[in-house]
Design a protein that fits this description.
Length: 352
Amino acid sequence: MVLVEPGRLEIQEFDLKSPAPEEILIKTRVTSVCSTDVKVFHGQVAFARYPVIMGHEFTGEIVEIGPQAAKKHSVKVGDRVTPEPYIPCGHCEWCRTNYHYHNCPSVGLYGISLSCKIPPYLLGGYSEYVYLVEGTILHKLSPNTSDLAGSLSSVVGNGVRWVKTLGQLSFGESLVISGAGSQGLCTLAAAREAGASPIVMLGLSSDASRLELAKEMGVDYIVEVDRQDPIQIVPELIGGPPHVVIETSGVPEAIQTAVRLVRPSGRVVSIGLSGGKSTSIVFDELVWRDITIVCGKGQAGNVADAMRLINSGKYPFHKINNYHYQLTDLERALVETEKPPMGFIKGAVVFD
Ligand SMILES: [Zn+2]
Ligand SMILES: [Zn+2]
């Protein structure tokens, strides 16, 4: 499914050939639909290169492996794998760090920055086959892991990043997660692994299915912010303001709430995108209350942890992708991702 230019999707056929020596060919199984896809569809992502086959959260079964790729990755034909979206150059100062290779100036991004004008053409998850190119960081699904869960490797990786790398949460610290979307749910799983306790999730009353899944994933308290004031109720629920707030929604009022809610000397991790809107914050308050705010991009160096978590089977990640589509329904999947129908958590294109 080629996005020929912003707003115009078209089914196209490409010849399939053997992968180059450093490449792997996979048959796509599941591609999870991301809100970034919606932005690429509308032409709002500066580094997108059209025409493009979108899709950067996917799993596939290995069909053929080039000899050099076989030496580098310990995988075989038939293995189910998921690549990280970022393809680092591997040589620059950023790529020689463990957690910051997404700053690489020549980083590639499956489904966004790699146009299908350029060989090997099939470089995004909304395609029946994908070539995994040189530099790809690859993770294996265990036999018991579903493709629906595996396709969330980078999303769970983000949760790990907000909790471990940015939030540096540790055992016994209290946490508020603002936003009940897939980012919030994956943050919840990572926070439980880190030993954060108690954990409160802030959502909307219209988020019922998301909040239900949060309960199943072990959240301690839920606050519906359109019904209750979190500034008042959260300290009552957990016996004081939280050590850490992770704000995933990007809504300016929610960012302000996060700053007001956290305890003195606490940390706010703010990673939601506000779509270019400004958020007014009085920095004097941050100084007097000794607050740290951390922002940042997702998942570089965090997907290995995420895959251990997914492969452990401890959390029902597959239930996050609760709307399923065929490839030919991609446009509807994008529309529903942008304006979620009642009960929608996250969509996925499921291949036969
Ligand atoms: Zn994504
Ligand atoms: Zn680099």
